Amino acid sequence: MSDQIPPNDTAHNAQSDPQPDAQPTGEHRSPFPAIRLLYAIGFGIVAWFVFWITLVLALAQFVVVAINGRENEELKQFSLNLIQYLWELLAFIAFVRNDQPFPIGPFPKVS
After folding, report:
1. By percentage, how much of the chain surpasses pLDDT 90?
2. What's the angle, vertex CA 30, arms to CA 86 and CA 91, rounded to 5?
3. How far apart are CA 42 and CA 36, in angstroms?
4. Cβ atoms of residues 92 and 43 within 8 Å
5. What is the C-alpha separation between 64 and 57, in angstroms, rounded?
6. For residues 67-80, average pLDDT
7. pTM above 0.70, yes or no
8. CA–CA distance from 74 to each of 10, 12, 48, 61, 108 (Å)?
9. In whole angstroms, how far apart are CA 16 and each of 10, 24, 66, 73, 74?
10. What tens digit of pLDDT does each residue of 43-72 get?
11. Cβ–Cβ < 8 Å for 84, 50
12. Helix (H, G, I), strand (E, B) or coil at 90
């Protein structure tokens, strides 16, 4: 009989301990975006490659400047487009934007 809790104590404990998992009734929780997670992993791999390609192009531009004394405008424009693409990839992964980047969406072109 000593294992039983008096009914008054049970009612008091239920009223004083708010449930941490309880949500307000007007709030709707969206399901976990599993497909977006898969896209984010794929785009993360693409972003890693794009980052390294951009660094190689920066090195190539440095060599061109060292040899010719001026920048290659086509290489500069392509590097700028790659940097914009890298931003779009990272923005999608970080939920900053919802539009999917290339190859699902259009390749960015900076003018």
Report:
1. 53
2. 10
3. 10
4. yes
5. 10
6. 94
7. no
8. 76, 75, 23, 10, 15
9. 10, 18, 74, 70, 69
10. 999 999 999 999 999 999 999 999 999 999
11. no
12. helix
